[in-house]
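call fold(seq) -> tokens
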Amino acid sequence: MSMVVVLIKLTSDFHRRIVESEGQLLSDVGDGLNEEGFDPANDTNDQLDYRDISLFAENAEHPLYELFHDGEILHEDYEWEYGHPAYFEPDQVVKLSNELRQANDEEWQIKLVADFLGRAAHENKGVILGVT
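ret:
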């Protein structure tokens, strides 16, 4: 069984509407609903298995730790298979992106996350992170 790490970049307005829908809008988009301003191919990354990055994500000294432990719960009544997805405001995304880049970690998994966060930061978007 896999533990897919899902990263989603989104506008603050889209985040607000997801929270107002108690997560249902995010589920609907995942099921193929079109959302203006959201392109699943460019705004979603599901290329990592948590088990491949768990040593980094569980090490309080590694910048990836923050990503898995410091986010705001998206909604109390909305969970994925491995818990509540977390939301990071655009300013937090910038901070996390910078920390991952400064770590100069050569692992492709870390570079993938850093690049995704960098694109989100450049677009002034927040990020949802969860494991399915």
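The chain is about 45% helix and 20% strand.
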